[in-house]
């Protein structure tokens, strides 16, 4: 089976049973970004979200009295959903009804392109629709003025839409949000108003309905929640794309040497002296410190790259005699990349198995010959391991994909390389479609494990494997235009920063 066929099989027979009905804010951000990668613009998702809010709010409108709708909007995408809802509500409201949109801030401080565009559209409508009033109220005094209007409208049917703050907000509420929430709660308790929240309730608010999108959010656990579909395809959860890349930890502009990652490469032999060098060069494009532990031929190759650190051991292959030095160096680095160019022999086999037994919970990327050398009889696929096999190497691992329940024991993340890269563990699965036929040249796998190891120094393992596959493949895709299929691993390495710079 191809990786794509394996993906379909595992998704249907195993991972579909682990699918959840809720989603975290971080996961939702990834899905949004991946929709854009698939050609579904965020502004379309906002349109569908706002429209669904308007549909639900329309159920609260009454024909026997005047309806007054107040939409309180924050400066982010939650507010953008509110702007769209207001536009659609102009079609639901009668000629005697009114719509008041209150932006808690100024137009110039609206944070996203999508929200800004929808605010502009709403303003163009307000010039012609006498029922629609748009206000910018950055201060508490202006917000209190709106609240007094609500309090004086006891004979009308009043619906308040909470489009203030979305899922990404942390910490305590600031003014004017805090006072507004307190007053709205008091008015609702007195029976004066109905409150509908967009996606999630603003912290501290207790309303009548929460209109959330795509899937229930973790905060939404009661029966006041209605989930509306807004056109997000299921594949956006399983494809590695822009959303995953934006989820990587950004580099702190105030960081110091060593704070952006330290990676140790353990590998190489008298025959395969280039593999660990390629891994080290790839990792060094991302982390601050890259170290290689290997034999003399590798150290000689490293001399051309003064920014790399080398530790030489005696012999033609790594053996148990250098275990103590390997363990000592491992303690000084966040991630170890094990396997590039080790060679398959008894010395290396003994070294690999002894090292993995003693290294503990160190983050390790296991590649190439190390995958072949592991004794898998009683081997535990630990959560801190990432494996990066191609198909033949994967066969050594003893994981039966024909029997997907065998994945229950696989805590490690596995990046199965191929035309489509498959990334999975017992909880999650994703597929990456970047890359091309030019990457069949030897050494591209060494570049990949260098990227994955570097990302793993500052990110969770699964996302590191996903984004490592994406970066490696996309670097190859960028090279197509310049060199066709005729490029080398060294060319790939030079394009790593170009890919990363696209996702600042």
TrEMBL record:
Role summary:
Catalyzes the epimerization of the S- and R-forms of NAD(P)HX, a damaged form of NAD(P)H that is a result of enzymatic or heat-dependent hydration. This is a prerequisite for the S-specific NAD(P)H-hydrate dehydratase to allow the repair of both epimers of NAD(P)HX. Catalyzes the dehydration of the S-form of NAD(P)HX at the expense of ADP, which is converted to AMP. Together with NAD(P)HX epimerase, which catalyzes the epimerization of the S- and R-forms, the enzyme allows the repair of both epimers of NAD(P)HX, a damaged form of NAD(P)H that is a result of enzymatic or heat-dependent hydration.
- Gene Ontology MF terms in the entry: ADP-dependent NAD(P)H-hydrate dehydratase activity; ATP binding; metal ion binding; NAD(P)HX epimerase activity
Query: What Gene3D superfamilies does the record tag this protein with?
Result: 3.40.1190.20, YjeF N-terminal domain (3.40.50.10260)
Tell me what gene encodes this: nnrD
Q: Does the keyword NADP apply?
A: yes
Protein name per Swiss-Prot or TrEMBL: Bifunctional NAD(P)H-hydrate repair enzyme
- Pfam family name, one: Carb_kinase
Which PROSITE patterns does its entry note? YJEF_C_3, YJEF_N
The catalytic activity of this protein is classed by the Enzyme Commission as 4.2.1.136, 5.1.99.6
Instruction: Please give the subunit comment from the record.
Output: Homotetramer.
> Which residues are AMP-binding?
445
